[in-house]
Amino acid sequence: MSHLLREHAPITQAGWSLLDDEARERLAPALAARKLVDFAGPHGWAHSATNLGRAERIADAPEGIVAATRRVLPLVEARAPFSVARSELADADRGAEDVDFEELDSAAHRIAVAENAAVFHGWGAAAISGIAETTTHDTIALGEDCERYPRHVAVAVDTLRGVGIDGPYGLALGPEAHTRVLETSQHGGYPLLEHLREILGGPPVWAPGVEGAVVLSVGGGHFLFESGEDLSIGYESHDAESVQLYLEESFSFRIATPEAAVALTP
Q1: Residue 77: closest CA among 191, 258, 194, 246
Q2: How far is the CA of 65 from the CAs of 101, 110, 195, 202, 231, in angstroms?
Q3: How far apart are the C-alpha atoms of 27 and 240, rounded to whole Å?
Q4: How many degrees, rounded to 5, is the angle at CA 53 between CA 52 and CA 54?
Q5: Cα separation of 67 and 57, whole Å?
Q6: What is the dihedral of CA 4, 5, 6, 8, to 10 degrees?
Q7: Cα–Cα distances in Å, from 46 out to 116, 146, 156, 232?
Q8: Is the separation of the CB atoms in 159 and 264 below 8 Å?
């Protein structure tokens, strides 16, 4: 039996398939960090910590013994609760195409935002340092003039190249900045998004949970996301009207090369 306890829910196999498909569809565009950093796993729910490959000397060891403790980074468990009406699940089994999964959609957005925010801005209580807060480079102000965005991104790319960080490069765009980019064409009607893609040599990505934007190398080895339990739907309880469920994951994130990113403030 899985720790998700799905076997105890009053949900048919077809219902679970529909829920999983809906979650996957809503999460895929929003999980920006996974498109830009290294992803390892999933290693399973029992995986509790990331090996940091370091040790700390123990001062109080038995006589004649030299001892050290291994350093690890604990995985954080994140859960976003939601509920589904049993009447909607029954209609889904009848073949309804317009099943109301509004709460699931909201939970998917919340947990994606939390994951992105942890990767790019940190989560101190979970011992996670964020890319934007640990970069060794000066920040660049985006401003409100979208036509200047390519210049700012080019400066960030040149900064990374200047310290020997090779491309391709990616761009995590916060929702407000991303909307401006989508709505803007430069002189001659050339899409701004395509201009940014050419400068980066890699993807500009919509990143809910990010404030401003971050330019980073996506060449690998710089930013490391480790998944224990990948995003999954679990069962909590139910009554006559609804089923209480949750989206859950466990993960750690660590930065190997702080100088491999430049933060662009709103």
Answers
A1: 246
A2: 60, 49, 61, 51, 44
A3: 29
A4: 90
A5: 6
A6: -170
A7: 23, 46, 40, 14
A8: no
Is residue 197 within 8 Å of residue 204, measured between CB atoms? yes
> For residue 75, what is the DSSP state?
P
Is residue 243 within 8 Å of residue 227, measured between CB atoms? Answer: no
Residue with tokens 């660590």: 254
Residues 160-206 pLDDT 10s: 999 999 989 999 999 999 988 888 765 444 688 888 999 999 999 99
CA dihedral 250, 75, 119, 16 (to 10 degrees): 0
- On whether the CB atoms of residues 116 and 33 are closer than 8 A, the answer is yes
Residue 47 in tokens? 């995986």
Q: What is the pTM of this model?
A: 0.91
Task: Give the pLDDT of residue 205.
Answer: 96
Q: Is 128 helix (H, G, I), strand (E, B) or coil?
A: strand
Whether the Cβ atoms of residue 72 and residue 127 lie closer than 8 Å to each other: no
Token code pair at residue 81: 């609760």
**What totals of helices (H) and strands (E) does the chain contain, helices first?**
8, 12
Long-range contact pairs involving 31-34 (C-beta distance under 8 Å, separation at least 24): 31/112, 31/115, 31/116, 32/112, 32/116, 32/172, 32/205, 32/206, 32/207, 32/208, 32/209, 32/210, 33/115, 33/116, 33/119, 33/120, 33/172, 33/207, 33/225, 33/253, 34/115, 34/225
Phi-psi region for residue 31, left (φ > 0), alpha (ψ -120 to 50) or beta? beta
- Characterize the bridge pairing of strands 223-227 and 242-255: antiparallel
